Automatic annotation (TrEMBL), chain B:
This is Cytochrome bc1 complex cytochrome c subunit. Residues 47-126, 148-226 form the Cytochrome c domain. It catalyses: a quinol + 2 Fe(III)-[cytochrome c](out) = a quinone + 2 Fe(II)-[cytochrome c](out) + 2 H(+)(out). GO terms for molecular function: heme binding; iron ion binding; quinol-cytochrome-c reductase activity. Gene3D superfamilies: Cytochrome c-like domain. Heme c 2 binds at residues 161, 164-165. It comes from Kitasatospora cineracea. Heme c 1 binds at residues 60, 63-64. InterPro entries: bc1_cytC-su (IPR009152), Cyt_c-like_dom (IPR009056), Cyt_c-like_dom_sf (IPR036909), Cytochrome_c_Oxidase_Subunit (IPR050597), TAT_signal (IPR006311). GO terms for cellular component: plasma membrane. Binds 2 heme c groups covalently per subunit. PROSITE patterns: CYTC (PS51007), TAT (PS51318).
Length: 351, 273
């Protein structure tokens, strides 16, 4: 087939003129050059041996993989020159598996390049448009169809059609909406909601699991807190802490710019939600000199000295602040929930 | 009057004077002796304070003021305590090489004795966190206790430190050019002091919210991650997805493309071989 292609190719242009006067005549395909393995049986045999050697090496490497898995102690550390001290097991596993996969690939490539059939197979490209007859016919038919439907004349049909087409995508919205229930009231409140003036909830230090007194929180310090009674061993701990987590800082009261925020704190101790109001990453990159808290996810920055106002980044609103006070024994407590939902915005969020 | 003056020298007058003199001496001794004794005890301390004051005048007073009261170029040092001095000077951060968003770590030019003197002087300005001794920050030598400390420290590190310093302690960026430095190769003492005092923009973790023992556990964990042998593979700075992604896209994909081009472009013709 390939021998007669050049002529067929030239013939498809239809005229002799093109090949004659055209300085850039279609050169056709270059003559086929045989590979050494095509003409020399010994070379072919050698290539065959090389390919199978690669496959055998791959098999050996796989066996080596299994052997090192079974025999090397997981704690063994060895020194290997450019890498330094490495785990012997991981090094052996990576090396053997790497060699096994590489040899299969290399063998396959070598096989394809030296031994598989080497005939050039051109695939011709044609213009994709239909020829003129067909196109005229289609345009003709379209016009007749439009005329017969009287689409332009019957306005009512036209308008209702447009209306129905516009509405159809709504079914998609409904289907997507069906993907899950709305969060309902679940995001409105956190675990602090159970605190009341009569039954306050103590703030418990995440490090020590102990309640804290105001004098424990010194200026410039950062402390993470959870509500008393929320145990790390509890099954739903992760779900609850995702809303309840607090960061406690202390700022000299005269440095707090937002009076509402100062009143919610206790002697300059402020308790902010740790959950970013952008998409809910935990933020606690607190800079004690500037009182800025940075969110590592998208760099939202909150000024904790100014009611956690957003001073940079995509977050939509300030971090909610929990009102804190002390109980009779002098421990820091909350007497109610945040007065807005913590975390990112959602449609049903009250504000 | 006359009678009095006539009898001016009562036979017991000498005794009375003697008693009065004894009482006065005793009283004076009682009033002054304890103070003198205390001064004698801390003479080494006061010597250190004096030496420290001299070093301070040369190295620190241009920013922090002649008496450490602070100026527009540097904060007041009253109440920062000896731990902060030991950290800032010991890591070479102070004296600062230039003002800016962050004072970087550099080579320390003071001897430990000089640092102690400086620290003694600054501590004398007002009470503050005291530089720890090695019992406070050195993790246990016993392998079992040490392993326990590392495990607990890891948890504490992830709660309190990882947000800024990265889960492997490699550091990370903050706002406006500030950054949390890498903890690699940092002295156990300096890690402890940083938690104690909250240098620069790092918040502090005082003993009231993070007891001494927990600080020691965190030190144990940081030590452990520092010395941990490579488990195989390229760590790429342990910085996480950014470096790994960059490496994968540029080197991984790039190599594959190069190989694909080579395989396709290079056919083995008889005349070439
Ligand atoms: S989640 Fe905090 S900035 Fe995006």
């Amino acid at each position: 087939m390939s021998e007669n292609l050049p002529e067929a190719h030239g013939a498809s242009h239809g005229t002799d003129v093109a090949t004659h006067g055209d300085p850039f005549a279609d050169p056709g395909l270059p003559a086929h050059e045989p590979r050494r393995t095509d003409i020399d049986e010994r070379a072919a045999k050698r290539a065959e041996r090389q390919v199978s050697l690669l496959f055998v090496v791959s098999m050996l490497a796989t066996v080596g993989f299994i052997a090192s898995y079974a025999s090397i102690d997981a704690d063994k550390i060895v020194y290997i020159f450019p890498l330094g001290h490495v785990s012997a097991l991981n090094f052996a596993l990576g090396m053997t598996l790497g060699v096994a996969l590489f040899c299969i690939g290399a063998g396959a490539v070598h096989w394809a390049r030296t031994l598989m059939s080497d005939h050039e197979l051109p695939a011709e490209r044609h213009p994709i448009e239909a020829d003129d007859d067909v196109r005229n016919d289609v345009i003709e038919q379209f016009k007749t169809g439009a005329a017969e439907s009287a689409f332009g004349r019957r306005k009512m049909i036209r308008n209702t059609l447009i209306g129905s087409m516009a509405l159809v995508p709504l079914s998609g919205v409904v289907l997507l909406r069906d993907l899950g229930p709305l969060p309902e009231k679940k995001l409105l409140h956190t675990g602090w909601v159970e605190a009341t003036a009569n039954k306050p909830i103590k703030l418990v230090n995440m490090n020590t699991d102990q309640p804290m007194k105001p004098e424990d929180i010194v200026q410039g310090s950062l402390t993470f807190a959870k509500p008393e009674g929320l145990e790390e061993s509890a099954e739903d701990f992760q779900q609850k802490i995702a809303k309840d987590a607090l960061m406690l800082i202390r700022i000299a009261p005269e440095d707090i710019k937002d009076t509402k925020s100062r009143d919610k704190g206790f002697e300059g101790i402020l308790a902010y939600s740790k959950i970013c109001t952008h998409v809910g990453c935990p933020i606690s990159l607190y800079e004690q000199q500037t009182h800025h808290a940075l969110c590592p996810c998208h760099q939202s920055t909150f000024d904790l000295a100014d009611g956690a106002r957003v001073i940079f980044g995509p977050a939509g609103h300030p971090l909610p602040q929990l009102k804190i006070t002390t109980d009779e024994q002098g421990f820091l407590v909350a007497t109610g929930d945040f007065d807005e939902p913590v975390g990112p915005s959602y449609w049903e969020r009250p504000r | 009057m006359k009678k009095l003056s006539a009898r001016r020298r009562h036979p017991l007058a000498a005794v009375v004077v003697l008693l009065l003199a004894l009482a006065a001496t005793g009283g004076l001794y009682a009033a002054f002796a304890p103070a003198e004794k205390a001064q004698a005890d801390s003479s080494a301390q006061s010597l250190a304070i004096d030496e420290g004051k001299k070093l301070f005048a040369v190295g620190c007073s241009s920013c922090h003021g002649l008496n450490g009261q602070g100026t527009s170029d540097g904060p007041s040092l009253v109440g920062v305590g000896s731990a902060a001095v030991d950290f800032q000077v010991g890591t070479g951060r102070m004296p600062a090489q230039q003002p800016g968003a962050q004072v970087p770590r550099k080579k320390n030019i003071y001897s430990q004795a000089e640092i102690d003197q400086l620290a003694a002087y600054v501590a004398s300005l007002g009470p503050g966190p005291v530089a720890p001794d090695s019992k406070q920050y050195q993790p246990s030598d016993d392998p079992v206790t040490n392993a326990e400390q590392v495990a607990k420290g890891g948890e504490l590190f992830r709660t309190n430190c990882a947000q800024c310093h990265n889960f492997a302690g490699k550091g990370g960026a903050l706002t406006n050019g500030k950054y949390a430095p890498s903890l690699e190769g940092v002295d156990a003492k300096h890690i402890y002091e940083a938690m104690q005092t909250g240098p620069q923009n790092m918040p502090s973790f005082p003993d009231t919210t993070m007891p001494e023992e927990q600080k020691r556990e965190i030190v144990a964990f940081v030590r452990h991650t520092n010395d941990e042998p490579n488990q195989g593979g390229l760590a790429l700075g342990s910085l996480g997805p950014v470096t790994e992604g960059l490496f994968g896209w540029i080197f991984g994909l790039g190599t594959l493309i190069v190989i694909a081009i080579w395989v396709a472009a290079h056919t083995t013709k008889a005349k070439k071989s």
